[in-house]
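2024-03-11 09:14:02 DEBUG pipeline.ingest accepted 1 chain
2024-03-11 09:14:02 DEBUG pipeline.ingest length=401
2024-03-11 09:14:03 DEBUG pipeline.predict start
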Amino acid sequence: MAVFAYRGLTSDGRTVRGVVDADSARGARSRLRRDGIFPTSIDEERDRAASPRQAGGRVRPGDLALVSRQLGTLVGAGMPVVEALSAVSEQTERPAMARVLSHVRDAVTQGQSLADAMAAHPSVFPALYVGMVRAGEAAGALDLVLDRLAGYTESQARIRAKVRGALAYPVLMTAVSLGIVAFLLGFVVPRVTRIFAEQKQTLPLLTRVLLGLSNAVADWWWVIALLLAAGAGALALSLRRPEGRLRLDRRLLGMPLVGPVLTRIAVARFARTLSTLLGNGIPLLPALDVAGEVTGNAALTEAVGHARSAIREGQGLAGPLKESGLFPPLLVHMVAVGERSGELESMLDKAAIAYEQEIEGTLATATAVLEPLLIVVMGGVVLFIVLAILLPIFEINALVR
């Protein structure tokens, strides 16, 4: 069967798009009409390895979690993998996900394993996902592995959503505030304060400071913009170099207030990933390779790499993690207990749960503190501008009287 991308209209006039499997374009049109869709365009998908963005958007972690759970349910019910892939691709509402699943199904039909077929789409199925599917196929427990992957993906998506939600308001508030202040200093204040300068009298200190800031923004805004652009470019070039990225990530982990939160987020991801991999039969050394990469921090990834080398030389995992000085004592202690008791997977899972709960509480507290703090700061800036404008008015009124 071929894969056809289509656009069409439903019976109620809504525009829809997606992919459908059929032997020919005529067969695709017939199938769509049976489903109540009147196609306006149908094109055969020929590039099997193209990016999912070309199919109508990116694949989100939540989409992958839902597909994993559906596949696990169908495979666990005894449905062959090819049929399960077809069923899930037909019912998903995301065209990008449907297209990728159709490509995976075609590859499996041609004799590839499910893991190899998924590995051809690294932007959708990361190395962790592919490795666990491969282990599940080898152990004959693909349904259980897919179910665990669904839970893992959901937990990671939940943490990312909470972090983004906690940062959204402060970032938006800061951006809007800076824009308003820049507009006031660059355009409004000069026109309002010009009349005060024409009075040829000594202006209050606040007004002189405001005029200085306003003149600097109005006259040198292009220099400020160039400096900001140059700084952003230099930072981007530095982050492209491994040593620059490592240096920045170390500084981020050492920052007050922010550093501990970033450390807990990365460590929770590390513990959850390593626990999931070990629970699905993947050996410790290759599991550490994947778990180290998903931390998202070059300093922690380097520390995990050193721990991996130490394990090859016969040491345990807890010792090298402690020597790095980057991993919290709770994680190191639980890893040590897990190694002694032979329950490393269980202890890592408990550590991940503990850190995820701590992250949720920290983000909630930070959001509750940041919102009123930003309001107070913005109010202070506005008060400064208002006073700088009103004080000369009061003095002029006093002189007139």
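2024-03-11 09:14:41 DEBUG pipeline.report The domain at 178-401 is CATH 1.20.81.30 (Receptor-associated Protein).
2024-03-11 09:14:41 DEBUG pipeline.predict end
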